Amino acid sequence: MRPIQNQQNPLPISMWSEYDSFPISLEESLHLQPKKNLHFTSAESIYNPLVDFKIPNFLNIQTASFKHFLNVGLIEKLNTLNNMQNSDKRFEIYFYSEKYKISVPKWTPSQAILKRKTYNCQLYVPVQLTDLSTKQITFQWIKLATLPMMTKYGHFIINGSPRIIMNQIVRSPGVYFHQSVKDNHINIYSADFIAEKGAWLRLEVDPKTGAIWAKLKKTPKIPLLLFLRCFGVDFPVLNNYLQCKNLSKSYEKTAIDETILFQDKKQALVQLSKTVYPTIKPESIYGQMFLFRKFLNPRSYSLSLLGRARLNQKLGLCIPHDYTFLTGQDILFACLFLLDLVNGNRNPDDIDDLKNRKVKPCGELIQMQFQLGLSRLEKHIFEQYKQIPYKKLVLGNILNSTAMNSSLREFFGTNPLSQLMDQTNALAELTHKRRLSCLGPGGIQRETANMAIRGIHETHYGRICPIETPEGQNAGLVNSITIYAKLNPSGFLETTFWKTYKGHILNNKDPLLFDSDQERDAIIAPGDMKCNDLNFLPKSNSIPSRKQSQFQLVSREDINYIALSPVQMISVATALIPFLEHDDGNRALMGSNMQRQAVPTIKPSKPIVGTGLESRVISDIGQAKQARQSGFVTYVDGNEVVVFSFVKRGMMKKVIGNFSNYDSESYLKSNVGKDLINTKPLKPIKYELDKFHRSNQDTYMVHRPVVQVGSWVEKGDLLADSSSSQQGELSLGQNILVGYTPWEGYNFEDAVLISSRLISDDLYTSLHIERYEVEVRDTQFGMEQITCNLSQSGLDYLDHLGIAKIGTWVEHGDILVGKITPIDQKPLTPYEKLLYDILGKKVPKTRNTSLTVPKNVHGRVIHVEIIETDSDFISKRPIKNQKQSKSNHFKFSHEIISNDYLKNQNQEKSIYDSIIDSKWQSYLNRDHANLDFSLRFGLDDRSEKSPSNLNLDSSKSYNRHSGVLKVHIYLAEKRSIQVGDKIAGRHGNKGIVSNILPRQDMPYLPDGTPLDLVLNPLGVPSRMNVGQIFECLLGLAGSYLGQNYKIQPFDELYGCEASRSLVYSKLYEARIKTGQDWLFNPNNPGKIQLFDGRTGSCFSQPVTVGKSYILKLVHLVDEKIHARSTGPYSLVTQQPLRGRSKQGGQRVGEMEVWALEGFGAAYILQELLTIKSDAMHGRQQLIHSILDNKPLEIGTPESFKVLIRELQSVCLDIYTSQLVGKFGKRAKLDMVQLP
């Protein structure tokens, strides 16, 4: 239990510059600084009016962990390499880890994405090499690694793709006691020593003899007394403990059998070596080596400080906390504890209890991989010791960054916990960063996980959401952290509670943080209890509470703590569902998951009925732009927003006067600045806006300005919305008018009927950006070329380089990048030469390998990126006749490269590298705090270098003489909703669009408003997600009243049937204020008489109608519809491949065969199972049979041949034969000869 420091934090806006990596401040980004404690200026929490407490920052788990890695973990791991000596102890290496430095990242996050680079920095460590024989000391700064840096929003950028490191939840180091039952109902008792690093040890009681054995992986089992004796525990000591615990009878047989064998520790080590190494001569040294390698080597075994503390606490030991190895005392006391468990005096441990499971955040996982890289570096150092002569032994030859870089590259590229970030929408990104996974290295195997591991535990309350988890194989293995959950320094999940005293909630003090072990003996009330104005619980002896996983009814005086909020037990995505308490848990799970699959539309709309967390999601994830300082907006366009702010705060608005009447910056600086006393002149702050960037899931990311020139903004105010927000709130769908009624069978089961208004008004039109890539390589026949000189006509949309111009509309087959590839020149025969001369054509020397638009794709070119991989530099070409903006910035079009310019840049890069290597220390010792980073090293800022000096001959084709050139074309495609698309609500109510009706044919309200969506009413009672009914009715009232609502889940604390009362009261209010009596009918509350749009007649029964928030999911029919005529076949089965991406076929399974058999479609069935599948001869002869009007030759399917071969392989005499001769004699036929 620990109190929360309830500090006054600013709004959650980022104070970092664009060039700022996650842990470096703006000042440090201009020059290298010594490592120091890093502090964050973004907010840790923000006040939510629905709960009387500040919700912690949703990304704090990711960012705080990486900060701890840089401040503490990195230094700890570097210290493990100190005092390394070679074999003859002549040289020694020492790392000054506390003085390490990190350089400025070469790219900003946005540049790294566009250029397909990694957002990283260089890690430099001062290293000292000492010649112990001559006492000569060499000091040098060494580039130890290229470290990927976390952005300020908690993710990494690896090779141009945003990635995240998932939090892993594993068993905490310590000792655990188990009791299991075999098939023959025999109890098996065991104790497991789990180390943070190294081998796991198991002590197991033999159910037949009662003896205790020590077991390790790939090692024979060892008698416990032998094991204890090797650790230095004498038998009299063990006997005394057994006598004190009255356990001597339990261990009497084993004790008598073993004491005769081992007289001292040396003999015990000899016997141990004989047991573990039966093939070699037993000696005590081998036994000692075995113990050292398994349990006493600091490089291969460690219990960690946490593991030692838990061992001491559980076994009652007093071993120093910094001794992280296994001792004989640990094993001895675990043995006594195990015997108590056998006798029924103790209970086994619950491995699913959160007190026994710790979370490894991203910083700890990177730290473990960093340790692996250091071990590889150590091995490399010792190899260099042996290979390099003493006279040539210098630090530059011994140390390099290859080992560390390969280790980090392996982790970020192949580790299953390093995943491509889900960027479908803002909620998907936030949820992905707050995930907990039991999988991964050191975790649980998906195939062996049982229901106990996947289930919900009572200690999950307030820490792990019981609802949000994937469906399928990962159910229960991947979870989400709740809203108020935090990680303590040991890695255990904590949640917050208010202290109560005699029924009074002490919310004037800071709340307390509890892990699952600390709250075990407390009586805790839930957060949905109704309190009076003085914060007293109701006077009752039946207040629901829980203690030690037991639910009970107690009086208010017995309550010790109470939860902060009703939403404390659920995750962010689940808390976004209004009226959650009225939904079945399975449907709430689907609703939580499907919100993450919602595609951002081009006209986002915030929900009428929300929960109050919508704005927190957008602010914490950082997709919207917020003002860093108060000031006036002086310039707004699609590229940037400029705000003029004063350095010091306290500006009086009356001094400014009518600023909107003046559009001159000079007036601001001359007049307004003079009138302010003790205030510096106005300073412009520019906020760069994203212009239709592509996400990992091909959805679009953009900033929409929401401020106007002349408006005043305060610190934290919204400047620009994102693609998933409106007015700073999460907006994933649209508020549309829905009705629950059958309609001509078009909404049977989960089908839905929609109006054409959704298409014409672009309510569900989404924008998808796809990237297409082409490479220019140096082939064996010559260099490929990008050119516009192609033989095809109609290529006016290509520029002089042969690349599609920005803004061009392209469709299937259009050329995006014109490219030709040289081909092999074969000698022509005289007849071929004569033919070319007659036709007047030249012998082709190249072939057209241009990049074209794929099938079923059409869109507009929005961006072109040209990347040369050798220099990693992109020059920019300005648009002609581009006017200069007020911000005095140049506007650039798509990029081109000049060979001469790239050559100069390569030379400058080599100069830069030489400075880093040879003169690093001298530059660091100088005071260049006020100089730009690039100027310190004699380089111009490449990102702002004027492109006017580029020499480019537009008449020539473009090629490269070294390296690989890549061209990326970005196409934007608008996709309207259509039949086959999947839509869903927030309550797990999902369906497929079955038909699109004209709006005049849709059922309409008494005021003539047609419905937008018709749902099946049978989808509500069986699914038990009644929350959608409350939402649609309240949304209807809000649309007519012009109100938005924030509904806190679990609102029954305000009274019985609170949801129903609220909905009916708002409908009645809408009826009174609008004069529409049909909005609320007391006889049929919530139901309205509808009229058929085709006939004008009314339906026979009133229908439930309302405004629901409906999402369009990423499962679009355009990406799923597929047809195949011919295509690739599997070499093994000769059947068509599976999958749309492989141009595969559709599987005709067992049930499909039954259906065709039921209709008697014999010939269709024959074709599907033969020539359309794996009848090789038949499909080759098919085209000839059709053209010659001959009967089809089906042939023998390959699957039949495989079946015969399988039967023959099990010695069954089965063969094929044919009738030969006049009398039809059967003759065996080889399988190969079958047609």
TrEMBL record:
Residues 171-360, 419-486, 1144-1215 form the RNA polymerase Rpb2 domain. Residues 678-1142 form the DNA-directed RNA polymerase subunit 2 hybrid-binding domain. The lineage of its organism: Eukaryota, Viridiplantae, Chlorophyta, core chlorophytes, Ulvophyceae. One of its GO terms (cellular component) is DNA-directed RNA polymerase complex. Belongs to the RNA polymerase beta chain family. In plastids the minimal PEP RNA polymerase catalytic core is composed of four subunits: alpha, beta, beta', and beta''. When a (nuclear-encoded) sigma factor is associated with the core the holoenzyme is formed, which can initiate transcription. The RNAP catalytic core consists of 2 alpha, 1 beta, 1 beta' and 1 omega subunit. When a sigma factor is associated with the core the holoenzyme is formed, which can initiate transcription. It catalyses: RNA(n) + a ribonucleoside 5'-triphosphate = RNA(n+1) + diphosphate. GO terms for molecular function: DNA binding; DNA-directed RNA polymerase activity; ribonucleoside binding. Its EC number is 2.7.7.6. The keyword Cell membrane does not apply. DNA-dependent RNA polymerase catalyzes the transcription of DNA into RNA using the four ribonucleoside triphosphates as substrates. It is found in: Plastid. It comes from the Eukaryota. It holds the Pfam family RNA_pol_Rpb2_6. The keyword Ion transport does not apply. It is an enzyme of class 2 (transferase). Keywords: DNA-directed RNA polymerase, Nucleotidyltransferase, Plastid, Transcription, Transferase. This is DNA-directed RNA polymerase subunit beta. Residues 105-390 form the RNA polymerase beta subunit protrusion domain. GO terms for biological process: DNA-templated transcription. PROSITE patterns: RNA_POL_BETA.
